[in-house]
C-alpha cells in the first residue's frame, strides 16, 4: 500500500483492512490454542453483531458506518479474548498489539514518503488533516481549529465518535488502543527532514478532548 492508497481509504476500507490484518496477526502470534480458535471467532462475531445493532442510533451516514465498526472491532476482540479465558490485562495487550502492530509500519513509511515528496510538508499535512476532517470523520466528530495560519495548525477534537461508541458499550478503558493508531502516521513526521513539529498533548484516553498541534519550523542560519 502506498500513501495515495492510504489517504484515499474510506472508513469502511480502513475497518476492513485493520480487521484482516488484526486476525492474521493474532493467528501468527499463536496466542490462542487451535481448539479454542473457533470459539474465539464465534464470540467475536456474536459480540460484534449485537453491539452494532445496539449502536444503530450513532450511524448517520456511510462515514459513521465504517468508523463505528472500527471501534466495535476493538471492543469485540477484547471481549472475545476474555471469553476464552484471558484476563483483562492480557486481553488489552493482545488487542492493542493486534490492532496497531500490523498497520503501524505502513502508516509511518507512507507518511514519511508523502511528506518527503511534498515541496511544503507543513502545508501538505494540514491539507490532508482538513480533508480527512470533512471526508473521513465527518459531522459525527466535532472539530475546532484553535490556530490555523502559515506557521501552526492546532486542532481540537471536541467530540469523537470512537469515544461515543466506547461509552455506549461501557468500554472507555479501550480508548488508548484506538488513540495509539495515530502513532503510526505521527512517527512518519521527521522533524529534521520535514521542518515540522507535531504534538498531541491530550486525547480522549487521558481527558475529555483531544488536541493535535502541527507547528512549522523555519530554518535560521547561524550568525557568524
Task: Provide structural commentary.
- With 224 residues, this protein is α+β, with helices and mostly antiparallel strands.
- It has two domains: 3-100, no CATH class; 119-216, no CATH class.
- Helix content is 60%, strand content 13%.
- Strands 1-2-4-3 form a four-stranded antiparallel β-sheet.
- The chain is globular and about 70 Å long.
- The model has no long low-confidence stretch (mean pLDDT 95).
Note the main attributes of this structure.
2 domains, 224 residues, 60% helix
Chain-wise SSE layout:
Layout: H1 3-8, H2 11-29, H3 34-54, H4 62-83, H5 88-100, H6 104-117, H7 121-137, E1 142-148, E2 152-159, H8 161-168, H9 175-180, H10 182-186, H11 191-194, E3 196-202, E4 210-216
Antiparallel strand pairs: 1-2, 2-4, 3-4
Helix pairs in contact: 2-4, 2-5, 3-4, 4-5, 4-8, 6-7
Helix content: 55-70%
Note poorly predicted spans.
none
Strand order of the largest sheet: 1-2-4-3
Structural class: alpha+beta
Total number of beta strands: 4
**Morphology:** globular
Indicate the mean pLDDT. Answer: 95
The percent range for strand residues is 5-15%
Largest sheet: 4 strands, antiparallel
* SS field, number of helical segments: 11
Question: Could you give the order of the helices and strands?
Answer: HHHHHHHEEHHHHEE
Q: What is the rounded distance between the termini?
A: 46 Å
Amino acid at each position: 500500500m502506498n500513501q495515495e492508497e492510504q489517504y484515499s481509504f474510506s472508513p469502511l476500507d480502513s475497518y476492513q483492512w485493520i480487521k484482516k490484518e488484526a486476525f492474521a496477526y493474532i493467528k501468527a502470534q499463536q496466542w490462542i490454542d487451535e481448539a479454542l480458535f473457533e470459539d474465539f471467532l464465534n464470540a467475536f462475531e456474536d459480540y460484534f453483531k449485537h453491539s452494532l445493532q445496539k449502536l444503530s442510533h450513532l450511524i448517520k451516514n456511510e462515514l459513521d458506518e465504517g468508523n463505528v465498526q472500527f471501534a466495535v472491532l476493538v471492543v469485540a476482540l477484547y471481549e472475545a479474548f476474555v471469553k476464552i479465558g484471558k484476563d483483562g490485562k492480557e486481553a488489552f495487550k493482545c488487542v492493542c498489539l493486534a490492532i496497531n502492530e500490523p498497520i503501524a509500519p505502513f502508516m509511518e513509511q507512507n507518511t514519511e514518503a508523502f511528506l518527503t515528496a511534498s515541496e511544503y510538508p507543513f502545508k501538505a499535512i494540514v491539507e490532508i488533516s482538513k480533508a480527512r476532517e470533512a471526508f473521513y470523520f465527518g459531522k459525527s466528530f466535532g472539530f475546532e481549529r484553535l490556530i490555523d495560519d502559515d506557521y501552526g495548525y492546532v486542532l481540537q477534537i471536541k467530540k469523537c465518535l470512537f469515544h461515543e461508541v466506547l461509552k455506549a458499550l461501557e468500554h472507555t478503558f479501550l480508548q488508548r488502543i484506538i488513540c495509539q493508531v495515530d502513532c503510526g502516521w505521527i512517527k512518519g513526521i521527521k522533524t529534521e527532514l520535514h521542518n515540522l513539529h507535531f504534538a498531541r498533548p491530550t486525547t480522549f484516553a487521558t481527558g475529555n478532548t483531544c488536541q493535535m498541534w502541527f507547528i512549522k519550523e523555519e530554518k535560521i542560519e547561524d550568525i557568524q
